[in-house]
Specification:
Length: 303
């Protein structure tokens, strides 16, 4: 029994079809069938039963799958952890960041940093806030650049440093009735409007939206979840709903209209936060990059 045979078994179990599994694994079907049969002989039981052209797990296979799935996941995590260590030793800084930060802020900061440390390299994961926090918690990234969250509970191991505030706006399509308004939209008018949001969590811009609506006695009507800024803007432009977005990301998009919301004087911004683990020392270059971001924490233009 080896890693390859366990991977073969897992793939057949999930696809429930030998031909599809063989194609995904880039091997022939006879070779796959032989590998599974050898595994069954070694275990002394049948792992699959045929159901027409498909196959289903036997009770032995169902039991075995749970262990194999966990084992392969742990092996993959271990491989990733070792590769991460090797890359860190090769001067790679791992950062997870919001999509919008790569339009100007992050490239500028990386350029400044590489002037100081020419041998440094960066591995950037573009994510939404919850995924960024999980990347840092699970040590896939040393640093995270994300929006609003509370460093408590699950996120209590994280240090949260406020870099700057980013103005927000309500975006609508050109055909939306709000696009023709010259006065500010009242929060009450958002009730029932279909909202396009990032993958729905209680953090980041989604939290800001919920907090905006809550005092008026309603929850936002979530119509569609998108993974990225481009997904949100594209869906809004198509007329599928409205959204809250960073103003700077939308102002030059000809397919969208930025609309003012009357927040009764409350700031309509999202915080840009730098996060790292408090219980895990940062590698030297990640530490130096963190310190540089903190020293330039008056905003994206250093103003």
């Amino acid at each position: 029994m080896n890693y390859q045979s366990l991977l073969y078994f897992k793939t057949v179990a999930e696809l429930q079809h030998y031909t599809k599994a063989a194609n995904q694994l880039f091997i022939t079907q006879p070779a796959l069938s032989k590998a599974i049969r050898n595994l069954e002989i070694e275990l002394g039981c049948n792992l699959f039963q045929r159901d027409g052209r498909n196959v289903t797990l036997t009770r032995y296979g169902t039991c075995f799958y749970e262990y194999v799935n966990r084992a392969l996941h742990e092996i993959d995590e271990g491989v990733g952890a070792v590769r991460h260590m090797v890359d860190v030793e090769k001067n790679t800084v791992f950062v997870s960041a919001l999509f919008s930060l790569y339009s100007k802020y992050l490239p500028d900061m990386i350029l400044r940093f590489r002037h100081l440390y020419p041998t440094s390299r960066f591995s950037i994961r573009h994510r939404f806030t919850t995924a960024i926090l999980n990347d840092v918690l699970e040590k896939r990234s040393e640093l995270g650049l994300c929006s609003n969250f509370e460093p408590a509970g699950k996120f209590s191991p994280l240090v949260n440093y406020h870099l700057y505030d980013e103005p927000l706006t309500l975006i609508v399509s050109k055909s939306h009735p709000f696009a023709r308004r010259t006065d500010k939209i009242q929060v009450e008018e958002l009730k029932g409007e279909p909202f396009i949001v990032y993958i729905w969590t209680s953090l980041g811009t989604n939290k800001i939206l919920s907090d905006l609506c809550a005092p008026y006695g309603f929850e936002p009507n979530i119509a569609i979840e998108a993974y990225s800024d481009h997904g949100v803007m594209g869906t809004v432009a198509a007329g599928e709903g409205i959204a809250i977005m960073p103003y700077a990301d939308c102002i030059n998009n000809p397919s969208l209209v930025c609309v003012d919301v009357d927040t009764k004087g409350a700031p309509f911004v999202r915080t840009m936060n730098l996060v790292w683990r408090s219980d895990d020392p940062l590698p030297p270059l990640a530490l130096a990059f963190r310190d540089m971001l903190i020293s330039n924490s008056n905003g994206p233009d250093g103003e």
